[in-house]
Amino acid sequence: MTDPILEVRKLNKSFGPVHVLRDVDFNVYPGQVTALVGDNGAGKSTLVKCIAGINGIDTGEVLFEGNPVQLTDPRIATGLGIEFVYQDLALADNLDITQNMFLGREIRSFGSFLSDGEMEKQARQTLESLSVKTVSSVRQSVANLSGGQRQTVAIAKAVLWNSKVVFLDEPTAALGVAQTRQVLDLVRRLADQGRGVVLISHNMNDVMEVADRVVALYLGRVAAEVMTKDSSTTQIVELITAGRSGDVGLAAATANESI
């Protein structure tokens, strides 16, 4: 296995007297999909916000491409190439696909004039690089897109900025069967192109289908880190709900469990 592109070591985070994350180790590898799973309140959102620079870290260390980094601001994370696609997608319905993909990062020429042609070209090239065939024009209004198409645009927006790590928060939530298939294929392509992908999901079918590795959080701790090919849905659910699995095959993965 190659070295992790993103490495979190012994991260702790408290809000007042509530210790939300306890000595969390979390690695993201290039070319792999890592599923981050856990029940509500397990600490998934807090961990992601710490990596995004939204929440400060109490103690612990974060390394990116082997170098220690201080993620004290969201702009630092995005500057490194860490992008986040949250569940609300953060798309503007009154704008078209190109305008959404460049929202807040518009290309300008001759001072204050927007370079519409160049932005449209780059938006089209990004969608083509991801083999997206469900969007007919980058000038379509986002308001007229289906749920799967909107998710595709949000992911393409993250990819546009030469991202190295992409976090996807519940990307198939509220999608139909066909749209879920399109999004999962896209998630797999992101990893196949060499990016480190983090899939945050409660859908175990999605996790087992596209993830290479699973990191299960339980009450703010890492209950286990397992390879998907060596695990079953039942075992992952046990880690989520009880913080441990009765299967002997997970003994090594849970050896450091301190719950």
From TrEMBL:
**Which InterPro entries does the record associate with it?**
AAA+_ATPase, ABC_carbohydrate_import_ATPase, ABC_transporter-like_ATP-bd, P-loop_NTPase
Keywords linked to the UniProt accession: ATP-binding, Nucleotide-binding
Q: Which residues form the ABC transporter domain?
A: 6-244
Give the Gene Ontology MF terms in alphabetical order.
ATP binding; ATP hydrolysis activity
* Source domain of life: Bacteria
> Which PROSITE patterns does this UniProt record tie to the protein?
ABC_TRANSPORTER_2
Q: Does Nucleotide-binding count among this protein's keywords?
A: yes
Query: What name does UniProt use for this protein?
Result: Sugar ABC transporter ATP-binding protein
Task: Give the species.
Answer: Nocardioides marmorisolisilvae
